[in-house]
Amino acid sequence: MSRTGPSQEEAFARIRLLRSPNIGPITYRHLLARFGDAASAIAALPALVGRAGRTYSPAAERRIHDEIAAVRKAGARYLFHDSPGYPPLLLEVEGAPPILTCRGDLAALERPCIAVVGARNASAAAMRLAREFCFALAGEGWSVISGLARGVDGAAHQGALAGAQAHATVGVIASGIDLAYPPEHAALQEEIATRGLLLAEQPPSTEPLARHFPARNRIIAALALGTLVVEAAPRSGSLITARLAGEMGREVMAVPGSPLDPRSRGCNQLIRDGAVLVQDAGEVIELLSAFSGSPRAVLREGAVPDPFDCPGDHAEAATGEPADIAGFLSVAPVTVDELIRQCGASASAVQLALLELELAGQLVRHAGGRVSIG
After folding, report:
1. What is the pTM of this model?
2. Which end of the chain offers a freer environment for a tag, N or C, measured as fewer CB atoms within 10 Å?
3. Residue 103: beta bridge partners?
4. 76-113 pLDDT tens trace
């Protein structure tokens, strides 16, 4: 599909829809597909939730006006899922952010991308390796994606920025676009926004809460052809990013370390579990490149089916009734496909029932298209 971006009125309504209670990326996608545009979806929300026996108020328009003003004040802009420049690799992922805010040049996402992550309390050796890897990768035309955290993330960005290349790094933050976290990376974040690209999913002025970091990690993994872990302890955020990359079908690479250093155990475990052992930037480029030497699997405009485009939903929206799925849901997650099979209703009727439950705050969505009672 051709992506031209929404009109000003539709953009405002989309932001309001996404900021309304109990609406995440998947619910937003289904609402937009079912009702055709965000304004119609917002108008339908009270009735949808009313059928679950609850009242519902969408986000106040004043709040959205204030948010837009804050985005402009920060020198940022919105990037919608159907806007030019929205990365196709990210759009491919279930639960892709329908709206991002950004500062910088989207040309950074036109280069082949590699995610580089690692420990916050990284060793001096890991910091040096991250800088050297990313300096070399940037010099070969790659964009380095990372999360601006202390340790390996910061070193990765610094290495990519150390050369003369523009658009060499992309920072994905867990806060609003107008906040710097950690504070000591404020200057680094500003340099990334000036010479590369800065992305945020959260609204402006949002503090980086613990639950925001896994959401940020999924974006880092999704933007890249592969994820490289330089140093990581077991059960760290870096391993979450690596696991997400693997689930998305992307390459996972790790730098081995001493078994005597707890900060290396995560990387060593990744290698045991099937991640590719790499020791220099050349091995990373070789792994992520086709036989011709060009980056492989780079998705171009139109190569990815748009998950927001769901033909057939609009016609049923006015008359369709939700399926009776209450008896098939419990606290144990089940896939939506299995739910459809069990209840015998149409996919559209099941999705409408799930929408109503989620908007009423009674449904939890899990990875892998699974749902449960909240």
Report:
1. 0.87
2. N
3. 198
4. 999 999 999 999 999 999 889 999 999 999 999 999 99
In angstroms, the CA 113 to CA 236 distance is 22
Instruction: Assess contact for 369 and 335: CB atoms under 8 A.
Output: yes
3-state secondary structure 95-113: CCCCEEEEEECHHHHCCCE
Cα separation of 152 and 231, whole Å?
Answer: 8
Residue from 126, 118, 88, 119 nearest 299 by CA: 88
Q: Could you name the CATH architecture of 105-287?
A: 3-Layer(aba) Sandwich (3.40)
Q: Find, among 367, 357, 373, the residue nearest to 30 by Cα.
A: 357
Q: What's the order of all strands across the beta sheet hosting 370-373? A: 334-335, 370-373, 363-366
CA-to-CA dists, residue 328 to 26, 160, 226, 333, 350, angstroms:
21, 51, 38, 11, 11
Amino acid in the structure at residue 107:
A
Q: Are 170 and 113 in contact (CB under 8 A)?
A: yes
pLDDT in tens, 103-150: 999 999 999 999 999 999 999 999 999 999 999 999 999 999 999 999
**What token pair was written down for 170?**
């992309």
Domain ranges of the chain: 105-287
SS3 state of residue 172: strand
Q: Tokens at residue 270, please?
A: 């990744």
